[in-house]
Amino acid sequence: MSAGDKQHSTVRAALLDDEGDLSLEFEAALVRIFARFSSSYQKRFPDARASGSNASATLARPDAADVWTEAELDAFSTVTNGGALPQESKDEIREFLDTDEEGNLTFSGFCQMYHLQSDNDANETWKDLAQLGFDDSLQYKHQDAQQAESAAPRDEGALASSSQAYKQSGEKGDE
User: In the 3-class helix/strand/coil scheme, how is the chain assigned residue by residue?
Assistant: First the structure.
C-alpha cells in the first residue's frame, strides 16, 4: 500500500453517534470553535485559549450567556467560507436555530446548525473542520487553524444550506 493509499484509507472520527446525536469528540470540537469566536465566552474565561499555540486542552462548555453576535458569526463564516454570511442566511439562523432575545446565536443553536449539516452533508462539515484546524480524529492542530485564517475563500452557501434545511423542517429545535 502506498503512502497515498494510506491517506485515503484514514478513518475519520464519528460526527454523530449511533443514536444520531453529536459525538462527544465532535461536541468538544464545537466547544473549541464556539469559544474561539465568542467574545462573551472569552470575557467569562479570559485564560482559556481556543486557538493559537497555547490552546487549552479542555474548555468549559458555553452556557446560555455565551453567544455569537452577528459580527462573530461573520468572523466564523469568513474563516470557514471566505466571507460574511448573506443577510438572508442570518435571518434564517435567527428564525430556525436557538438564539437569545437579541437574536445572537447560542451554543445550542450552533450545535443545531452543525448537527443538521453533518446529518445532511458530512463532507461539508469536514471541510469546515479542516479550515478551523481540526484533523480527521477531531484533534485541534493550531498550525492548521492559523493557516486557515489566510486561506482562499470557499463556497459561501455552506452555512446557508444548514439554515435552509432547518427552514424546510419547519420547526425551531431546542437541544
Answer: CCHHHHHHCCCCCCCECCCCCECHHHHHHHHHHHHHHCHHHHHHCCCCCCCCCCCCCCCCCCCCCCEECHHHHHHHHHHHHCCCCCHHHHHHHHHHCCECCCCCEEHHHHHHHHHHHHHHCHHHHHHHHHHCCECCCCCECHHHHHHHCCCCCCCCCHHHHHHHHHHHHCCCCCC
- Alpha-carbon distance of 102 to 160, in angstroms, equals 20
Q: How many structural domains compose the chain?
A: 1
Reported pTM: 0.77
Instruction: Supply the pLDDT for residue 51.
Output: 72
Is 60 a domain residue?
A: no
pLDDT at 13 over 90: yes
164 is a domain residue: yes
Q: Residue 72 sits in which domain range?
A: 28-48+67-169
Q: Is residue 154 part of a domain?
A: yes
- Confidence band of 173 (pLDDT split at 50, 70, 90): very low
β-bridge mates for residue 30, sequence order: none
Q: Which of 163, 145, 119 shows the shortest CA–CA distance to 15?
A: 119
